[in-house]
Amino acid sequence: MRIIAIECPECGYRLPGSNSLIYVTDKSGNRIECGHPGEGYSIWRILRTELNWLQQKLHSNPSNMLGHEHFKVKLSIIQRMLGFKNICELVDERTGVLYNFICTDCSDTFKLDIQRDVKTCPSCHSALIEHTHDMVGNTCPKCKSGLIIEWDTGLEI
Ligand SMILES: [Zn+2]
Ligand SMILES: [Zn+2]
C-alpha cells in the first residue's frame, strides 16, 4: 500500500494519511494495530487461543490462510466447510478498521473506527471532526494560510 502524505506546503504541517489500518482487540479490550502486510497473522496471534480449534481441525497454521486482506471471506468458507458458526462473528467482533481524523477545533489528530466509536474529538470533545483526507484543499489548521495538499511519497507499507 502506498503512503500518501497530506501536508501544508507553507508550514510543513503534516497530517496522518488516508490509509486505513486494521486492528484487533485483545481479551483485555486493548486495540492492537496490525501492520500491513501481515495483518492476518497479527489477528491470529491475538485471537489464537480462541482460534485454536481451527489449527487442530486443519493441522496447519491458520495464519497462512489469514495472512491476506480477504481473510474474512476465507474464514467464511472454512466456517461453512466445518459447520462452525462462530468464527466469523468472533473475527467481526474483535477486529475493525481505523481511519485518521483531525479535529478542526483543536487540530488534534486521532484514529477512529467509524463503525463503533463516538464521532467526537477525544481531546476537546468537539463534534467538528474531519477525515484527514477531506482536509485536502482546505486551509491549514496550523498556519491558517497554506492550502493542504496530498502527494504520493512513493513509499510502501
Ligand atoms: Zn479537539
Ligand atoms: Zn500550514
N→C terminal distance: 5 Å
Instruction: Output the structural class.
Output: alpha+beta
How many domains comprise the coordinates? 2
Bound molecules: zinc ion
Unreliably modeled segments: none
Care to count the β-strands? 8
Mean pLDDT level:
81
Q: Largest sheet, described in full? A: 5 strands, antiparallel
What share of residues are in beta strands? 25-35%
Please describe what this structure looks like.
The chain has 157 residues and is of the alpha+beta class. The protein has two domains: 2-20 and 99-156, no CATH class; 23-95, no CATH class. The chain has four helices and eight strands. It has helices spanning 39-58, 63-66, 71-82, 87-94, and strands spanning 2-7, 14-15, 21-25, 31-34, 95-103, 109-112, 129-131, 149-156. Strands 3, 4, 5, 6 and 7 form a five-stranded antiparallel sheet that branches. A three-stranded antiparallel sheet has the order 2-1-8, with no helix packed on it. Helix 1 packs antiparallel against helix 4 and helix 3 (71-82) packs antiparallel against helix 4 (87-94). The longest helix has 20 residues, at 39-58. The radius of gyration is 19 Å and the shape is elongated. It binds zinc ion (2 copies). One zinc ion is lined by residues 103, 105-106, 108, 121, 123-124, 126.
